[in-house]
């Protein structure tokens, strides 16, 4: 469970998150974080949030943002609002860290998604391996109310989730450990 001033790190995407306000502290209305993207962080997949909007305020460095097919580079002092259902991705293509204040409304279970993804990436880094496709699909399935891939369609994703459920729950993914 996320708590105020908790810091998590995901070595796979070079992202550190500090929780400023959590779902518990805001009655579920808001999740506020400070995110630091390491230099040359990888571009994440295009995704959207079906029930949430996001706001990013860049406090240092540059943050590259893809919204649909458009790419923007945000500088210190720039702010961007991303409404629910808007496909987007953010990463740092610069040589220095990019830092932004990041607000998600409503919070839903987004903080748990970040905690789980970070924990999986840290566990895998210790084993010197990357996150497996099954682990990524498990996260996408478990947190589909907060995060959805832009492609394939959500209907097709739902079919895939149904088909893979026996594999991800009977594998060594420790289903309970990452979703409790």
Instruction: Tell me roughly what share of residues is in helical segments.
Output: 25-40%
Give the C-level CATH assignment of the largest domain: Mainly Beta
Outline: globular
Strand content: 25-35%
Gap from first CA to last CA: 9 Å
Integer count of domains: 2
What oligomeric state best describes the polypeptide chains here? single chain
Strands in their spatial order, largest beta sheet: 1-2-3-10-5-8
Biggest beta-sheet profile: 6 strands, antiparallel
Radius of gyration: 16 Å
What is the assigned CATH homologous superfamily of the largest domain?
Jelly Rolls
Number of strands: 11
Compressed to H and E, one letter per element, the order equals EEHEEEEEEEEHHEHH
**Which structural class best describes the helix and strand composition?**
alpha+beta
The chain-level mean pLDDT equals 89
Number of contiguous helices: 5
Spans of at least 5 consecutive residues with low confidence: 171-180
Protein name: Cupin domain-containing protein
Pfam family, one: Cupin_2
InterPro entries: Cupin_2, QDO-like, RmlC-like_jellyroll, RmlC_Cupin_sf
């Amino acid at each position: 469970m996320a708590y105020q001033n908790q810091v998590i790190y995901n070595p796979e995407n070079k992202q550190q998150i500090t929780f400023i306000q959590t779902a518990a502290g805001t009655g579920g209305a808001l999740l506020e974080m400070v995110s630091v993207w390491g230099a040359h962080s990888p571009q994440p997949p295009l995704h959207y949030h079906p029930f949430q909007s996001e706001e990013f305020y860049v406090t240092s460095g540059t943050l590259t943002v893809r919204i649909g097919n458009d790419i923007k580079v945000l500088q210190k002092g720039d702010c961007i609002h991303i409404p629910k259902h808007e496909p987007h991705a953010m990463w740092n293509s610069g040589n220095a860290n990019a830092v932004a204040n990041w607000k998600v409304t409503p919070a839903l279970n987004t903080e748990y998604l970040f905690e789980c993804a970070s924990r999986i990436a840290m566990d895998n880094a210790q084993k010197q391996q990357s996150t497996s496709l099954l682990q990524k699909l498990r996260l996408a399935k478990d947190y589909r109310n907060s995060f959805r891939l832009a492609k394939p369609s959500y209907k097709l994703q739902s079919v895939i989730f149904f088909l893979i459920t026996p594999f991800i729950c009977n594998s060594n993914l420790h289903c309970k450990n990452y979703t409790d």
